[in-house]
Amino acid sequence: MARTAGSHSDITGPKVREAALKLFARGGFAAVSMRAIAAEVGVQAGALYNYTPDKQSLLFDLMKSHMTELLAAAVDNAGQSAGARLDAFVGFHISFHHARPDAVFIAYMELRNLTPENFARVEALRRQYEDGLESILRDGVAAGAFRVEDTKIATLAIIAMLTGVNTWFREGGRLSLEEVTAQYRGMVRRAVT
Amino acid sequence: MARTAGSHSDITGPKVREAALKLFARGGFAAVSMRAIAAEVGVQAGALYNYTPDKQSLLFDLMKSHMTELLAAAVDNAGQSAGARLDAFVGFHISFHHARPDAVFIAYMELRNLTPENFARVEALRRQYEDGLESILRDGVAAGAFRVEDTKIATLAIIAMLTGVNTWFREGGRLSLEEVTAQYRGMVRRAVT
DNA sequence: TATATATCTGAACGTGCGTTCAAAAAGTAA
DNA sequence: TTACTTTTTGAACGCACGTTCAGATATATA
Fold it and tell me: Mean per-residue pLDDT for B157-168?
């Protein structure tokens, strides 16, 4: 009974989300029609409404899933030194974001298309993620390992800097992602030391 | 004869650009209709076509103007020390961007709505701006004042970090823009030293 | 096999889009 | 005041939008 009669919603459902993710990232939420998403899935537009109540919710689901996965994947070992934790954060952030450019793009660009309520929910998740980095910085300051005037500002500065990698880094370019990550680790470490 | 007969296009023209700037920033290019822009100006939609050949060109003009103003305003005194030039760059970037949040927002968010040709033109201007910072970094490295592994990466990292201020800074908050700028100057300096 | 449920189609709904253009209005020059 | 130019209106164009839904189709259970 794990699967009800006549169902292949467990096939089409994910396809709808994948298609929406890809097309929203490429063209922007407002510029992508439900018909375009349906065509990408291989279905008529009406069928999409078996999987989302409306276009808005589709966007919100994508953003919420992205933030939830981000939070679930971000592990922080408070037992280690603040320096090691910061290095780990830099590596994690760059590689996690590099692996899902479409979701990252949408999460940053389509915030204004959320209802105020949904916007607040996504923002709360984002703040939670930022808090993870900030507590590393605070612990480092408390332990005398870091010198940071304002940990909140440093947090935002570091995250902006790291997320920026997604806008220009391309596989097969002059440097590998590992080399790029190493350089960012160096800059971040020095910035807070 | 500085003004041709019957003209008040020198009043309406700027109003069209201002309205488009405001509404594009608020709602996104695709979501803002020509009728909405016209309403903001106080005119019928058809009248807009005295001031732009089409909606696309309106967007491109806004972005090109923004980048042109940015380049014109960014002065770099090569006579000073690299450290002083870098400090000046940080202050300039933050204050210039703070003063025109709508234009900055559009310049970053609506790139994908440009035709390939117009995109290339805007990108060229952006690269020119980045080159300004990179030459400061290179000079600093050559003079032994900075230690940077890859000046291109450092350039992109610094710009991403500074531009990020626009996403969260609000007048009247915990810190003044001057205080924020001072902290960014510190982080940037340390990151490259 | 027959029955029941889940899924999808295809057409339709009202609405708003970017753009065009003839005619009207507003302004300037003589 | 008259002649002329610039600017704006207001209606119209064909098209695409998000969403709904009755009916058709596919799948699973018994």
Answer: 98
